[in-house]
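Please, structure for the following, as tokens.
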Amino acid sequence: MGTAQDAGPDLPADRPASGSSADTARVVARDRLVASLDRAAERKVTIISAPAGSGKTSLLRSWASRPDRAYRIAFVPVRRDEQDAQMFWLGLLNAVRHASGTASGTGPPAAAPEFNLRTLVDRVLRELADLSGRVIVVIDDLHELNFPDPFDHLSYLLTSLPPNAHAILSMRRDLRLGLHQLRLAGELAEIRSADLCFTERETRELLDASGIALSEAGAARLHQRTEGWAAGLRLAALSLAGHPDPERFVAEFSGSERTVAEYLVAEMLQRQPDDVQDLLLRTCLLDRVNGELADMLTGRAGAERILLDLEDANAFVVSLDPERTWFRYHHLFADLLRLELRRRLPGQVPALHRRAAGWFSEHGKIEDAIRHTQAAGDWPDAARLLADHSFSMTMDGQAQTVRALLRAFPQGGDYPELALVRAAGSLARGRLDEAAAQLAVAAAYAETTPPDRRRRLQVAIAGLKLRLAARRGHLAGVTEQARFLASPVTGQSDEEIALGNVLRAVALMNLGTVEASVGLADAERHLQEGAVLAREIGRPYLEARCLAQLGFASKIRPVATVQRRCREAIELAERHGWDAEPWMAPALITLAASLIWTGESGEGERWLRRTERALQADTGPDVRLLVHIVSGMLRASSGRHREALQEFSAAEFLGSQLADPHALADQVTSWLVATQARLGMTDEARARLGALDAERASSGEFGNARAVICLAEDDPAGALAALRDVLDGAAPVIGSVTVVESQLLAGLAHRELGDHRAANQAAERALALAEPDRLVLPFAMTGSLELLDALPRYETAHAALLTDILDIMRGVSVPARLPAPLAQELSPGELRVLRYLPTNLSRPEIADELSVSLNTVGTHLRRIYAKLGADDRSAAVQRARELRLLSAGTHSAPRSPGF
């Protein structure tokens, strides 16, 4: 689809003829129609509906080319047989951006394999609303839209246009646009075939402007025979120019529009020089043509000059770009030329298609190459081309085009390469078993091909197998295919290198995704490498997907790092309109989780709801289980234990659907057991623990769950016994949050036993562990309000955090302040020293508390002051509180609890 600037590349201003090799059929200024269109354009939507050749585009050209127009025009020509909704809507968005001038200095919106159509339409509406002054969106050849339900979202756009925006739709036939409400409101104008017909006076003006001497009776007869049909009159004017007997010519033709047109095209061609006739016939098979391609098909130079002259002569040729290098023929004219080609040169049609296909293939225009190969009847070659390029086409947002090309193959044909294409389609629709079977067929066929061809097919197959394994959460399968795709290959062409880079970026993305889901450390490295590679090769979609997964993979990193990575992914996605796509959910939900961990439940819930909206069209278990986990965290933190139990149960069930255990499986089940115990369901909780294998049961998370059961059964001593291995460091744990919970549960147990000193010490240790992350959630989930309330403020080194936690648990709003970020984060040793700065302890006392030398404390203090930009201890404490290293505010801490 072309882009648009002012009147748009497919809607150039009228030009005078310049020595055309075609006799000129001048454009007549049809002021009545221009005025009619002006009046119609005052309504919200104008429809121009008339058959081919009625003069729709000529009217739009005349109307748009006036220098005194007081509005902007965003022109969108619909490609013939447009199969991809995304390509149409991106073209519309780009046209609006060009009309507004906001596209200068930036590339066009990027296509992606997956997209949210409603989000894209909303982007168009926002761009229109942001425009100053009146803007008119012109969509030409709307009937060419051929993707599923093409008018649902268009109707939404048209009925939601902002006050400054209007739309003109040009089409060959009436379409079901659902605009009855606009019609009832008087906001729909219509221009139809009868309105576009030439009057006798306009017919006379056209003949006079073309220098054709015809009597009044002859002109009236011509108007009668053509019934004012614009294309018929223009063809007649081209044929009459220089005719030895114009009166006889007019008397000799009659019949239907099609018959008249066929006759006039034949007559017009006969009056053109041989080189013009040959060019028109040999290039009419193309939907678009430039000088180089026309030269190749005709076997002679000079085609571009002829095309320019034909356009200047208004001879059914229109340029497609501002530079006037690409052209198309009027659709009706092209159809008639093809009939004439088959009549004159029937044996050359397949050869012309083959030569065109070769040129398009060499110039990277693969869709055109495949279509012309199919038109030539070279089905095996077409299958090879489609198999080779279907992946790249899908990455470029042309999945529907790939399916249309696939449907064009003869039923029952033996084209094993197409199994690869069908497998990709099955994967996209979630038919995983079907995709696996088709990949097996493709792999068997690849083994029968020559070595260079075999490698190309195997790379494409590996890419799809990797996607299949990732969808199934099968780490071994992902690793196997990723290793194959990363293996070095020599002797590749530039095209193969480009495809290899894309496949490698996809491999790194899928490998990192599955590694993150099962908690492997390499996930971050692979996702970072994938994001960097995607950025280098200009694939923002893949970069955004890698960054979205990187946010989740970073869950054991500093909270500031986690949030920075999540927001980086979200910002990149927002720039391209992808922020509501299902694959953005890992970044959205991880950001929500990090906010809930630090007590910002309201903001966390907002991001949780945004995640749920993004997942409305996705039913995969991998990300949905994260939504249930975070929902459970949110409800447990406010004491809504029954709702939390439902969420944790749903998360556990979805985790059981994955091929490999999820990284948070133990955390989910332990929280589920603890929630059952808090609801008094201790028998059920113990039964669930008893069903675990010995290795899982020995983890710290389940030690905490046992302690909660004991506390619910009024057995604080049993709770302390259950926590012993966790507190001693003997039990494996997912992250530091487990130990924070253990200390709090120990504090609750000591308090039940009446040992308030031990309870305070346990609470102080929990605060010390929570301080770097400013963790709030463990205190809320364990119900530690009374435990913390009993802690003397003068005895704690974490008074600021303690105050914040108590305020949050009591529902008191804690003001958030956005600090300037640190250029360099504090090290763990520096953070340990920082915790003691709000106390009255001296440097030697801090050294004793930390069991380090006085010199080490002094070194840490100097570095703390430098990093915080502080001159003394008091200023360092204040700055640290602003950064939530010690106090309320937006946090920047050294370790995140994950989920």
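The first strand starts at residue 45 and ends at 49. The chain has a mean pLDDT of 84.
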